[in-house]
Amino acid sequence: MVSEELPAGTQSVGRALAVLKLLASSPDELTGSAIAAELRLSSGTANRLIRALIAEGLVARNPMSDSYYLGSGTVLLGQAAQRGFGMDKALPILEQLNAETQESVNLSIRQGSESVVMMRVQSTLPLRFEQHTGARFPLYTTASGKAILAFSPHAETYVESLPATLAKVTPHSLSTPRELSEQLREIRVRGYSIDEQENVEGVRCVGAPILDADGYAQAALVIQVPTVRMPKSRVRTLGDRIVQAAKEVSQFVPVNRAMSH
């Protein structure tokens, strides 16, 4: 939903960004009426925003269905952002890790209370967990989120903000903030986090923080493996390897650059 009461001069910008975010999160093209309804805008306002975004190449129209999708201009912006975050240099490290393990590898960052997938190299094995860049998950259910929290100066503040009983994503998800605090202490000692099917049943993950010069994390590297290929004996092997890879990535990714808590 977009507020209709933003200060003058920012309202149109906020609405235009909302259109882009909506199209980015939608698996399908959207009609103008669908965009207007989802963002609670009048049809006239939605159409004006769409026309302006089309003129800048940020939105494109499918004439066959009269619906809209992200334009080529967003690809160029995304590529420039990846270079700015050093992700073009980090990608070969993820690809090497993927080649060694034959498993899916993610680079995720923290945005508020969520872990967001920024880069992904997918396993080529027939049995694998499908995921897309931009996917968001609660910090406490993911290997990436827990790895970041364990090395965050604001970890206690986050844990204290949680309800007494945590919402479960799967039956294996943590139940209380106390359980999370205990895991964070273990991660600090061990160096890597473990997701025991807490976010997706049948998928076990290990993650390591990408640390800045002060030893804090806003990003993490993760290996995702179907449990049938991930006995606990393999967890330690991959955990040690993901820590090494995360250290390599930290040379290129300025994790404290525009990655907010």
TrEMBL record:
PROSITE patterns: HTH_ICLR, ICLR_ED. GO terms for biological process: negative regulation of DNA-templated transcription. The keyword Ribosomal protein does not apply. Keywords: DNA-binding, Transcription, Transcription regulation. Pfam families: HTH_IclR, IclR_C. Residues 73-255 form the IclR-ED domain. Residues 10-72 form the HTH iclR-type domain. It comes from the Bacteria. GO terms for molecular function: DNA binding; DNA-binding transcription factor activity. This is Transcriptional regulator, IclR family.
